[in-house]
């Protein structure tokens, strides 16, 4: 998970960039920049005619016909919605992009770090796999955007209580700074054409995942092993609902744009 509380996985950024339909050269450059950031230029394998990220964005974002997308953030023990062909690679990567444009694809980034701890670079290769149509099955797994919003509200209450119980801000100054950053962060750098509701759900889910990370670093104020285990189990469910909310939001964004294109 990204250390920056407002940072999003590359697959999420790419899904939302494609959902915004980058049809002009400027749109394509903005999408590529949003996904690559400070990485080395991304390579693409397995997709005919697309050797790098820019070609992929042109092929799928500016291609003919409506495109539907979704980003999945799987974890060990939770492969819901993943095509079996990419399950192992996607779990290792922690992310996967699904695309449907006539043919269904699953694309997984392989991220290799290089350099020193003080100056780290990243080489990213996206591998595309043709898969069965994933759309109906995924919609049943992640639910609607409205259901994701409801789940996030309930999860936020659970996660907030965990922070209160742990008194994180008192015994971890670094966590206190991270919590303050969560409250202050607002701009995710997503395309302005996206539905504000989608942007809100993605932002809330990303912040919730950071809260979970803060609350599960150690046992904090837990007074017994049983309490620590109970808290961990509850927060594991919270983190799962946040990951599914991101999947639901990216799916909704892609479907909204696809219906406009038809």
Brief synopsis:
With 262 residues, this protein is of the alpha+beta class.
Largest sheet composition:
5 strands, mixed
DSSP, total strands: 5
The low-confidence parts are none
DSSP helix count?
10
Integer average pLDDT: 85
- The SSE string, one letter per element, is HHEHEHEEEHHHHHH
End-to-end distance, in Å? 35 Å
What structural category do the secondary elements indicate? alpha+beta
**Widest beta sheet: strand line-up:** 1-5-4-3-2
Rg measurement, Å: 19 Å
Q: Structurally, how many domains make up the residues?
A: 2
Describe the protein in words.
The chain starts with 9 loop residues before the first helix and ends with a helix. With 262 residues, it is an alpha+beta fold. The chain has a five-stranded mixed sheet, sandwiched between helices. It has two domains: 140 residues, no CATH class; 99 residues, no CATH class. The model has no long low-confidence stretch (mean pLDDT 85).
Observed structural traits:
262 residues; alpha+beta; 5-stranded mixed beta sheet; 10 helices; 54% helix
Question: How do the helices and strands line up, and which of them pair or pack?
Answer:
Blueprint (H helix, E strand, L loop, with lengths): L9 H10 L5 H12 L6 E3 L7 H9 L6 E5 L14 H7 L2 E6 L1 E13 L4 E12 L3 H8 L2 H22 L1 H4 L1 H12 L11 H20 L9 H37 L1
Parallel strand pairs: 1-5
Antiparallel strand pairs: 2-3, 3-4, 4-5
Helix pairs in contact: 1-2, 1-10, 2-3, 6-9, 6-10, 8-9, 9-10
